[in-house]
Automatic annotation (TrEMBL), chain A:
Domain of life: Bacteria
SUPFAM superfamilies xrefs: ABC transporter involved in vitamin B12 uptake, BtuC
CDD domains reported in the protein's UniProt record: TM_ABC_iron-siderophores_like
Protein species of origin: Marinobacter lutaoensis
Signal peptide range: none
A cellular component term, taken from the record's GO annotations: ATP-binding cassette (ABC) transporter complex
Name under which the protein is recorded: High-affinity zinc uptake system membrane protein ZnuB
Pfam families: ABC-3 (PF00950)
Membrane topology of the entry: Multi-pass membrane protein
UniProtKB/TrEMBL annotation, chain B:
SMART domains listed in its UniProt record: AAA
NCBIfam families tied to this protein: PRK09544.1
One matching Pfam family: ABC_tran
Protein name per UniProt: Zinc ABC transporter ATP-binding protein ZnuC
A Gene Ontology biological process term: zinc ion transport
Residues spanning the signal sequence: none
Length: 270, 262
């Protein structure tokens, strides 16, 4: 017990544990982002997280809760608006993503008494991980992973062929909604690690790296988790030895792994 | 007579004021093979989707027998290349035991491809895979949207033959969309010629004589499957709309076309 306690007293270990926790959920969800082409959607939710932060100060809600609620609302709004089909989905996402970010920034500027580390929010503040943050991360991770395991077949089937899944009785719409809530949860906790602007990278890059090597969907998910953890560890090491910003270092490591894997598999198949 | 598996009653589907399906009434029973033919944009796929419950009708009702198991073969299996998936795994996702999945693959002639990635299948192999997947579910009703798409000409005849066999074996109903008029005429029990509304329907031998059929597919096609033709009470323009050349009568939408010998 004292070993764990002393580990948790060390900011470096807290950062590593928190990063690994997020990477473990970002792996499977990142795979869904890649499979369902939701990259821009993830970006939009991440950007709206800033609006959530502004709201949390405005109505004094806990930060994480406010971010989750805002992300869920934006996700629902997106689903509703995309049904009307008057605008292309990417246009709609572009409008919402940047408007949410801008409204968040403008709202924060009205609250001069709130001293906020904007850089930390935008690019992550991994080294400032608190014990409370860890609790949020691991609570969220357990919840999301349990849901994923339980709903796996339906989620996979509706990703492969939505109409076929619907004919076979899979509750496609409900699963889509649950997936969105899970994204919102992960974004709320991942914000701490890599920041609003880099969250999508943490979702997509490990999953895309895994795709080069995977033969089954589950294989891809497992590899994405491993690559995510490697990116967190590598980024922290980079930050430790070269004094680089931790969040961007994680993304840089993930990208380097992606390039290396790509080069290796191209060579192997050539 | 057995209860119909599915009944459509005056089903209409409109998109932005454009009518895709116009007051279509039909029913399918066990053992029926019903084929929907019609030109591009005739609303065939929309009709199928309404039947499957994927597209809510604007008007009219769709009644499916409670607990009905449907095997659906969609028009194409667009696969996101980012999702690694083998044929065996795709079959297993149907929730059926591995043995039955293997049998269904063998039945459609792609048993040797079980370990292949579904991204490396040809168009014809994909169609067979989708059919195998539908089979593994032991459907009461098979719904096929252009099942022979991408299948070579010998394969097509074999595929329609297989569908007939499956109907006999499973004692299921079959409804399919097809463009392969010659093969359909030989392999089906009943044909519905759709052009938003039901132009004409009946048994293959009769329908190729129907003027609405000739109107829709052109004389040369109709002549190759028919022996004689006759007039009817409405004409279509290039969009398939009915041109009211004669005063609108109560059944001017051709739910019943008049059959006068030429």
């Amino acid at each position: 017990m004292s070993l764990i306690d002393s580990l948790l007293n060390d900011f470096f270990w807290r950062a590593l544990l928190g990063g690994v926790g997020v990477a473990l959920v970002a792996g499977p969800l990142g795979c869904f982002v890649v499979w369902r082409r939701l990259a821009y959607f993830g970006d939009t939710l991440a950007h709206s997280a800033l609006l959530g932060i502004a709201l949390s100060f405005l109505i004094s809600l806990p930060l994480n809760l406010a971010v989750i609620l805002t992300c869920v609302c934006i996700a629902l709004l997106l689903v509703l608006l995309s049904r009307t089909r008057t605008l292309a989905t990417d246009t709609l996402l572009g409008i919402l993503a940047h408007s949410a970010l801008a409204i968040g920034l403008v709202t924060l500027s009205f609250m001069p008494e709130v001293r906020l580390d904007l850089t930390g929010l935008l690019f992550g503040d991994l080294l400032a991980m608190s014990r409370d943050d860890l609790l949020w991360i691991y609570g969220g991770a357990v919840l999301v992973l349990a849901l994923l395991v339980r709903l796996w077949r339906g989620l996979l089937m509706s990703t492969i062929h939505e109409e076929l899944a619907r004919v076979e009785g899979v509750p496609v719409e409900r699963l889509r909604l649950i997936l969105m809530v899970m994204f919102s949860l992960v974004i709320a906790v991942a914000m701490k690690i890599v920041g609003v602007l880099l969250i999508t990278a943490l979702l997509i890059i490990p999953a895309a790296t895994a795709r080069r090597l995977a033969r089954t969907p589950e294989h891809m998910v497992g590899l994405a988790m491993i690559f995510g953890c490697l990116a967190v560890a590598g980024g922290l090491a980079l930050s430790w030895y070269l004094d680089t910003p931790a969040g961007p270092s994680v993304v840089v490591t993930a990208f380097a792994t992606f390039l290396l894997t790509y080069a290796a598999t191209v060579k192997a198949t050539a | 007579m057995t209860e119909p598996l599915v009944t459509l009653d005056a089903v209409t589907v409109r998109f932005d004021g454009r009518t895709a399906v116009d007051r279509v009434t039909l029913s399918i029973r066990r053992g029926d093979i019903l084929t929907i033919i019609g030109p591009n944009g005739a609303g065939k796929t929309t009709l199928i989707k309404a039947l499957l419950g994927l597209q809510p009708p604007t008007a009219g009702t769709v009644t499916r027998q409670p607990g009905l198991v449907i095997g659906y073969v969609p028009q194409n299996l667009h696969m996101e290349a980012t999702l690694p998936l083998s044929v065996r795994r795709f079959m297993a996702l149907s929730g059926r035991p591995a043995e039955e999945c293997a049998q269904a693959l063998a039945r459609t002639g792609i048993g040797h491809l079980a370990d292949a990635s579904i991204h490396h299948l040809s168009g014809g192999e994909k169609q067979r895979l989708l059919l195998a997947r539908a089979l593994a579910r032991r459907p009461d009703l098979l719904v096929l949207d252009e099942p022979a798409q991408g299948v070579d000409i010998n394969g097509q005849a074999a595929l329609y033959h297989l569908i007939r066999e499956l109907r006999d074996q499973l004692n299921c109903g079959v409804i399919m969309i097809s463009h392969d008029l010659h093969l359909v005429m030989a392999a089906t029990d009943k044909v519905i010629c759709l052009n938003q509304h039901v132009c004409c329907s009946g048994y293959p031998a009769d329908i190729s004589h129907d003027p609405a059929f000739i109107e829709t597919f052109g004389r040369s096609v109709a002549e190759s499957v028919a022996v004689y033709h006759h007039h009817h009470n409405h004409r279509h323009n290039l969009h398939g709309d009915v041109i009211p050349t004669i005063p609108e009568t109560s059944d001017s939408h051709g739910h019943r076309c008049s059959h006068e010998p030429h």
